Amino acid sequence: MSVYEQYYKESIQALTKYIEENKAMPTEKTWNKMAVSKNYLTSQSLGYLSGLRFPDLCKKKYREIQKRRRGI
């Protein structure tokens, strides 16, 4: 696994954790501040690598979390 793949996975995990804990999606500005301070990929980088705009990526993760919660 390349270093970039590792950064991407860590960033996605952090985004998922943020959404789970806050029960809300971060704004790009909020995420970018967090990304810089914790060494994650920015919203622009996550959007590019995922093939989705950052807000759409957040919505996708939010829906996945909701489905998981309903399944429990």
Describe the structure.
The protein has helices at residues 3-22, 28-38, 43-50, 54-71. With 72 residues, it is mainly alpha-helical. Helix 1 (3-22) crosses helix 4. It is globular and about 35 Å long. The protein starts with a helix and ends with a helix. 14% of the residues are buried. The model has no long low-confidence stretch (mean pLDDT 94).
Q: What gyration radius follows from the Cα positions, in whole Å?
A: 12 Å
Major β-sheet profile: none
**In sequence order, what are the helices and strands, one letter per element?**
HHHH
Q: Give the quaternary arrangement of the chains.
A: single chain
Uncertain segments are none
- Mean pLDDT equals 94
* Helix share bin: over 70%
- Indicate the structural class: mainly alpha
End-to-end gap = 32 Å
| Helical segment count | 4
Please report which band the strand proportion falls in: under 5%, 5-15%, 15-25%, 25-35%, 35-45% or over 45%: under 5%
What general outline do the C-alpha atoms trace? globular
DSSP summary, beta strand count: 0
